[in-house]
Every structure is written in C-alpha cells, then in structure tokens.
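Entry type: protein chain
Record version: 2
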Amino acid sequence: MKLDPKDERLLNKDEVTERVKFVAQHFARLEKSGHFPGRANLGRSRVGWYLSEVLAWMDDRKKERDLGLPLYSIASWKIPPQYSNTPPKP
C-alpha cells in the first residue's frame, strides 16, 4: 500500500500495537531478526515506526497468505538505505 507523502507519519508503540496485535517483546524480536520494520529513534527514550512501512509489512503478510508463500518471504517494506555524498560528521 502506497501512502500519499502528506499522509506519512510516525506511529508510537501504542499505535503500532493497536494495528498489529503483538506485545512489545515480540516486536523487538521481529525487528532484531529483520522481520518487522525498524524503529526510528526520535529522542533519548522515544521511538516511532513509519506508518507506510507498517502498512507495507501488513500487506506483505496478506500477500504471503494469498499466494501460499512461507511467512516473511516477502519484504517490500524494506527500503534500501539512502547514502549521501557528504562525509559523516565526527
């Protein structure tokens, strides 16, 4: 599912849990194994998940079910990292 850029936003932990009924520990396990979109660090003790990535992850689970594919065989939500030509700041 593709979002209009103006509809993109970050979801907090409660909003992600409301959409995908997992406990926090399971989200952490899926993230660590690369099977759930990674969190964005927003501050020292604040994180969020991009709505578009969570929706794409959910859509992938539906496609896998409909096509009879193994769980987590599709990963369209993974976005390749964007590299700039500027060197990192020390």
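Comment: The two ends are 38 Å apart (CA to CA).
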